[in-house]
Amino acid sequence: MQLPGPRVFGPPRDRQEALAVLRRAVELGVNHIDTAQYYGPDVANELIHEALHPYPDDLVLVSKVGGARDADGGWIPAQRPEQLRQGVEANLRSLAVERVDVVNLRLIGDEEAERGLAVPFEEQLAIMVELREEGKIGGIGLSNVTLEQVRAGLAHTQIACVQNQMSLLQRDAEALLELCRDSGIPFVPFFPLGSAFPGMPKVTEQPAVREVADRLGATPAQVGLAWLLTRSPNVLLIPGTSSVAHLEENLAAIHVELDAQALAQLEHL
Length: 269
What we know:
- By secondary structure, the chain is of the alpha/beta class.
- About 40% of the residues lie in helices and about 15% in strands.
- It has a domain at about 5-160: Alpha-Beta Barrel (TIM Barrel).
- Helix 3 (about 80-95) crosses helix 5 and helix 8 (about 205-215) crosses helix 9.
- The longest helix has 15 residues, at about 80-95.
């Protein structure tokens, strides 16, 4: 999400650095890349293709459908069945694959629901199942969903992963994380360090996080990511970055061990 330009819109500030991030990630053992055709739009997938195609056998590309961008970069719903199909097929073309390993159905548009224009969740899920049966999708994920929607999804079909916002500063998804753990589903927290958009709270700016980082000899970002990894063994992190240095810093979070004192300090955030 951080590879295109500002606000996830337009080309990257530094194309060569964006390509280097992708190549370095795979060199360091990353085998899961989260993307979307509407990141840019049409930018993130094109960068992934240039940097990594032909893809390593163990690389899992996870995209999402359900959204689009307007001419000013605004985020708009695209959740009618024909739009979801078009979204999947656009991913197939841009990534140059016959099947996308996992595609998340990204729920967008409280305003649409309030205006009575929302597409029923069951209709969206049905077209995703159809696309999977056609071999265009390997697995169906859900993103930005409620506990009830995940339960409804599980009653209808197999769910490959659930991707919702979660961080030290945003813990509304705890019950959802528990359901995923009990159901054997990977939970993928987006904005794991808080939103990267301007004006939104950042985990790395919190005094308690900085205190823990200083004491443990880690960075604030590593502390925030390590905290998520302590929540459950089914947590799969996707911290976005446009910098090779930040990529390497983020990956080193697996070596940060949060002791009881650190966990107690962070629990109060």
